[in-house]
Design goal:
This protein has about 250 residues and is of the alpha/beta class. It folds into two domains: about 140 residues, 3-Layer(aba) Sandwich (D-Maltodextrin-Binding Protein, domain 2), CATH 3.40.190; about 100 residues, Periplasmic binding protein-like II (D-Maltodextrin-Binding Protein, domain 2), CATH 3.40.190. Helices cover about 40% and strands about 20% of the residues. It contains ten helices and eleven strands. The strands form two sheets. Strands 2-1-3-10-4-11 form a six-stranded mixed beta sheet. Strand 1, helix 2 and strand 2 form a beta-alpha-beta unit. Helix 2 runs antiparallel to helix 10 and helix 3 runs parallel beside helix 4. The longest helix has 18 residues.
């Protein structure tokens, strides 16, 4: 009888452990501050802490394509979510455009400069040195940056001075250390740093809208749907996103 009870108890514990596996999240680097805090909320509600991996959306999308074990993908642009969807890696009907952001020009703290953020202005002459952003051919922040620089007529003059980082938080770090005299990052990235200052915000019509789509990956763990629902509907999660500077694109 004792053996039978011990077996049942072991079975229940084993089932509970499986039922409470951590949600595996791949997210754009610019989401790290907000999702780290929301992950703590999720844990405090009685769930295992989510496993949060951050990088450029492009790198994460390629890893998902290669079969990396992940439940939820949060991209910093629509293009890389489209890529994953075209590879039939998304769970059907789970994709949602959850957040918005803005693109800003930054400089190291105390080293700001003036520039006219309109076509006809000349950013190339406004500062000396390198301009850091995400890799302009693949990293969303860099893609948006190239769109803006091209629309404003500044790309040709600045192309040779651009340092393309692996992700937007790395670009931010370069500017924080003064290794780049200017940078193009998201407004949310600039807001978390006391080592940079915002020179100006890029006109919204100079680049595609900065939209963050979220979606479950095919064969995602059941907990992932609940976590995505929490991100979509929780007022506590909404407060964190807004405090970090994101725009909510879905009603709460």
């Amino acid at each position: 009888m004792r053996l039978s009870f011990a077996f049942v108890a072991l079975f229940v514990l084993s089932f509970t452990a499986r039922a409470e596996e951590a949600v595996r999240v791949f997210a754009a680097a610019s989401l790290s501050s907000a999702l780290n805090e929301i992950g703590k909320q999720w844990q405090q509600a009685g769930h295992p802490a989510p496993s949060l991996a951050y990088a450029a959306s492009s790198a994460l999308a390629k890893q998902i394509e290669a079969g990396a074990p992940v439940d939820l993908f949060a991209s910093a642009d629509l293009g890389w979510m489209d890529y994953v969807e075209q590879k039939t890696k998304l769970a059907p009907d789970t994709r949602i455009s959850l957040l918005g952001n803005a693109l800003v020009l930054i400089a190291p703290k105390g080293r700001s400069f003036k520039v006219d953020m309109r076509a006809g202005g000349d950013l190339a002459k406004a500062f000396e040195g390198k301009l850091c952003t995400g890799e302009t051919s693949s990293v969303p922040a860099g893609i948006y940056a190239k769109q803006s620089l091209t629309a404003l007529g500044w790309w040709d003059a600045l192309q040779g001075r651009i340092v393309g980082a692996d992700d937007v938080r790395t670009a931010l770090a370069f500017v924080e250390r003064g290794e780049c005299a200017a940078g193009i990052v998201y407004a949310t990235d600039a807001a978390i740093s006391d080592k940079v200052e915002v020179v100006a915000t890029f006109p919204a019509d100079s680049h595609k809208p900065v939209i963050y789509p979220f979606a479950l990956i095919a064969d995602a763990r059941p907990e992932a749907a609940a976590f995505l629902d929490y991100l979509k509907t929780s007022s506590a999660a909404a407060t964190v996103f807004q405090r970090n500077g994101f725009v909510l694109l879905t009603p709460r």
